[in-house]
Specification:
By secondary structure, the protein is an alpha+beta fold. The chain has eight helices and 17 strands. Helix content is 23%, strand content 29%. The structure holds 2-OXO-4-methylpentanoic acid (COI).
């Protein structure tokens, strides 16, 4: 089933930012998508309207108990002016897995993808084309029943906002560079049975204290360890983490505490097609630091929608610093980055059906 939505054009479009000066997530386009959900009626009244503030009851459950979720995806401009989305059906599937976890209603995958396309279509001219830039797409759902009882709401609002964005880590402006990463040995991101695999705001609120600690040590982000032993690597910042030890590329298994990243899945697919051993297994920080000391730790990188592929150059753990690959971008990181961004921007052929065009 295909969906169409009424559009109210913004009568006061803003000037577009200079695409070579964009940062991540600070400027927003002229339009946004809004759709309501009511129990008994389902999702209804999807519409594209001018971007702007929204009215919300101060009693809305999202404001008190954080019943909300979000997704992250991007639109890219090709050299011949087409606009492409990368694996948007995967975001739709993940949205439904998150919604199931936090008692929010399911959404038809086609409805989700059509809403994203309709919104991006309206703000096509906002998709930047400088190297390392894209239009970041933020779909999200909030529970807005005005009621203070702790229970699942009956009314929800689904929205999509768009921001022309530069690289997530400011140093990566169209050319990869490495990050400094703080290994967090006190706070944790997620525990088994919790919401680690779901894209809910609370996971990120809970991460802020550790990010502060990382910044105090001049690090860009946090490497998360498991909740029980504070030993096994989980994620890095808001991205999945990969380590190249010897000939193997290793990442944490999807065992409930890890976000099932769409970039993560793409990285594993590419590596396996290239014949590189790509292993999903538990990897301890001791194994990583030992490999670093022995010279077996060849590379490490973050993978995510926002972060794309962001190589790590230094790990700081218990006050010691471990330098990875001389703080240089490794061959796997570069090859994966070039391939994924090549497919996303239409420079490389899409032989896997990963891109969808926005008309
Ligand atoms: C993404 O990569 O889309 C994310 O969700 C990261 C975001 C929290 C900045």
């Amino acid at each position: 089933m295909s969906y169409t939505f009424p559009v109210t054009r913004n009568p006061n479009p803003k000037p577009k930012p200079n695409s070579s000066e964009l940062v991540f997530g600070k400027q927003f386009t002229d339009h946004m998508f809004v759709m309501d959900y009511d129990e008994g009626q389902g999702w209804h009244d999807g519409r594209v309207i001018p971007y702007g503030d929204i009215l919300i009851s101060p009693a809305s459950s999202v404001l008190h108990y954080a019943q909300m979720m979000f997704e992250g995806m991007k639109a890219y401009k090709t050299e011949d002016g087409r606009i492409l989305l990368f694996r948007p059906e995967m975001n739709a599937r993940r949205l439904n897995r998150t919604n199931e976890r936090i008692c929010m209603p399911q959404m038809d995958e086609e409805l989700f993808v059509s809403a994203v396309k309709a919104t991006v279509h309206e703000d096509k001219d906002w998709v930047p084309d400088s190297p390392g830039t894209s239009l970041y797409i933020r779909p999200f759902i909030i529970a807005d029943d005005p009621a203070l009882g702790v229970k699942a709401a009956k009314h929800y609002r689904f929205m999509i906002i768009l921001c022309p964005s530069g690289p997530y880590y400011a140093a990566n402006r169209g050319k990869l560079s490495t990050t400094r990463i703080f290994v967090e040995d006190e706070y944790i991101r997620a525990a088994h049975g919790g919401t680690g695999y779901a894209k809910v705001g609370g996971n990120y609120a809970g991460s802020l204290r550790a990010s502060q600690k990382a910044h105090e040590c001049d690090c860009n982000d946090v490497l998360w360890l498991d909740a029980i032993e504070h030993r096994y690597i989980e994620e890095v910042g808001s991205s999945n983490a990969f380590f190249v030890i010897g000939d193997e590329v290793i990442t944490a298994p999807l065992a409930g505490t890890i976000l099932p990243g769409i970039t993560r899945d793409s990285v594993l697919t590419l590596l396996r097609e290239w014949g590189v051993p790509a292993i999903e297994r538990r990897l301890s920080i001791d194994e990583v630091t030992m490999a670093a000391k022995e010279g077996a730790l060849k590379e490490a990188f973050a993978s995510g929608t926002a972060a794309v592929i962001s190589p790590m150059g230094t790990l700081r753990y218990l006050g010691e610093e471990y330098v990875i690959n001389n703080r240089e971008v490794g061959v796997h990181s570069q090859r994966i980055y070039d391939t994924i961004t090549g497919i996303q921007t239409g420079k490389l052929p899409d032989t896997r059906g990963w891109t969808q065009q926005v008309d």
